[in-house]
Amino acid sequence: TEFPPVGVSLLSELKDPDAAPTRPFVLSGRERHSSSRYNSLGYPQRAIRTTDYLYIHNFRADRWPAGTPSKYSKATYSANGSLVKSTDGPDHGGYHDIDACPSLDFLIRYREHPEYGPFLGMSVDKRPAEELFDIRTDPACLKNLAGNPEHAAVQKRLRDQLMESLKRTGDARVLDGGDIWETYPRVSSLRWFATPDWATQNPETVPKQEWLDQRRPKK
After folding, report:
1. CB count in 10 Å sphere of residue 144
2. Can you identify the CATH homologous superfamily of domain 23-196?
């Protein structure tokens, strides 16, 4: 089967900074980065960026974007995948979609600090399903304009552009829910986390992962 390239060459723009742009926006996406939350599930995002705006669609906003805050330090499971025994790790010992670094250590250490404390939440808190930022006036993307009536037209336009592009390129997240992304095995080591409320309340929404069940630490 042949898979012809679908991209557009940027060579003309690299050679001539004054050349006309080859397209008016850039698309980006994210699935699983590491073993960072329940069942090593990913944090599926798709985004569209124009000269003026960044629009992000978070498909599973009930998950933690930077990883669950804490994990089990030890866990064993039965043959059917039920948790048998576990030992909780330290509070704020998670966030494994952020690599270990002094800046994260600093934010965790000073999470109650009146000046520095809010920055941990900006980095790790759950996000709404839609985010919209005016990158001209808010380049750090701290003020979410999604849901603001004054920006409703921009939000709808970018949402429609993003979804049309994802459908046109056959992205599984918009064609059939995207759970196929969760079926791809992780080769590296796994971490184990408590079952979140959304999975307890709606177990039918938990993706099937035979590869994960085979690697659960057994009693």
Report:
1. 16
2. Alkaline Phosphatase, subunit A (3.40.720.10)
